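Lecture notes, continued. The same structure-token format from the folding unit now serves as the input rather than the output. Read the line below as a description of shape only.
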């Protein structure tokens, strides 16, 4: 790959955790191509996470969910026109590996790189790529993302580089509202209670018990109204739990960057702890630790169930079988 690359497009439309686990490549691409402009194409809802990133020159958005919901020809025409108007890129990297992301990438330009048919989540996506990478599907998501991006650009992202990465997202001082839930004389531990699937969630009763056993300042992070109600229940049933305020994506980054530890299920905010080099424990039920990049301070606890990564069972509620005592033991190790 030539070193005179000046404009790179990264296509990663969703979801939050996947975007977090993809953004790690930015610092390594920038080091290899310091003068190149890196631009990101994403779903509109996730743009605030990326817009102020110092290594991203521009964030371009699409709203495929709205397009699918409304089935509007005018919106489709507008989306296609927008993508085709972005200009010429030296290379376009589809790190998502879905047909929809491959189509978006191909509308931007012809020089598209992605996963081969045996590596992509949807093999048909590979038909839209000019060049491809082969990487085992059961490999860590972070390593898959890193490999396809670096392979496209002709360099290597090693384990040593990932272990010694800089925090992925910039962060600012906490707002007064967020600062109010932080403790000065205790460890600040955030617990993420929500997820896109019910089967990924850890029982609120177990979380309340965990907070009491930790005897530290446990901050409950929530996203939806239903999660807020669960968070309030936890706070009412544990004297060590505090409900976080409603947070924007950037405020969430700021909070997580100030923690001593984060505990959560397989969801975006939990992945943010790894992104910011904050110790974390990720709880897995219907998914596995391939969804994260484990380090000495970013660890996982998996329920007893067996998982077929090619056919995830969303009715696997085995995360409830993870013992509070096991989480407590790991948490105390990390806090030391």
């Amino acid at each position: 790959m030539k070193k005179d690359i000046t404009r790179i497009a990264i296509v990663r439309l969703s979801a939050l955790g996947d975007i977090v686990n993809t953004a790690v490549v930015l610092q390594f691409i920038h080091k290899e191509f310091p003068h190149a402009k890196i631009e990101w194409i994403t779903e509109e809802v996730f743009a605030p996470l990326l817009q102020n990133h110092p290594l991203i020159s521009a964030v371009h958005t699409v709203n495929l969910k709205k397009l699918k919901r409304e089935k509007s020809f005018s919106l489709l025409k507008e989306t296609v026109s927008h993508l085709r108007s972005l200009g010429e890129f030296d290379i376009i990297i589809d790190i998502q590996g879905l047909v929809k992301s491959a189509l978006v990438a191909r509308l931007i330009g012809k020089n598209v790189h992605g996963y081969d048919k045996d590596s992509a989540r949807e093999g048909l996506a590979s038909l839209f790529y000019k060049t491809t990478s082969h990487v085992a599907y059961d490999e860590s998501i972070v390593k898959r993302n890193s490999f396809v991006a670096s392979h496209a650009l002709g360099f290597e992202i090693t384990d040593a580089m990932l272990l010694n990465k800089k925090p992925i997202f910039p962060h600012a001082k906490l707002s007064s509202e967020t600062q109010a839930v932080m403790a000065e004389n205790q460890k600040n531990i955030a617990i993420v209670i929500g997820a896109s699937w019910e089967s990924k969630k850890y029982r609120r009763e177990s979380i309340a018990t965990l907070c009491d056993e930790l005897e530290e300042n446990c901050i409950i992070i929530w996203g939806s109204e239903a999660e807020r109600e669960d968070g309030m229940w936890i706070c009412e049933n544990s004297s060590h739990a505090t409900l976080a305020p409603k947070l924007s994506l950037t405020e969430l980054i700021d909070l997580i960057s100030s923690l001593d530890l984060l505990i959560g299920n397989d969801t975006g905010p939990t992945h943010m702890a790894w992104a910011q080099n904050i110790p974390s424990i990720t709880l897995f039920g219907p998914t596995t630790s391939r969804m994260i990049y484990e380090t000495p301070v970013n660890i996982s606890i998996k329920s007893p169930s067996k998982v077929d990564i090619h056919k995830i069972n969303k009715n696997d509620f085995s995360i409830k079988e993870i013992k509070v005592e096991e989480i407590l033991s790991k948490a105390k190790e990390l806090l030391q």
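Point for the exam: The mean pLDDT is 96.
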